[in-house]
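Example record

The entry below shows one chain as it appears in the dataset: sequence first, then structure tokens.
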Amino acid sequence: MRDPTDSVGPHREQLTGDEAHERVRAMLAETVDTELWHASGCCRRRRPPR
């Protein structure tokens, strides 16, 4: 059983540079099916409009 004094909500972080990049990658790895995301084509480079 969880201790009712434990915080389970979001907490604020302020990161920059490589540390921020790695944190985002870790969050995505925990929550996103990256194979499906890439297969959907959402990450393909799009040509700028002419």
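Notes for this example: The CA atoms of residues 20 and 46 lie 26 Å apart. The chain has two helices and no strands.
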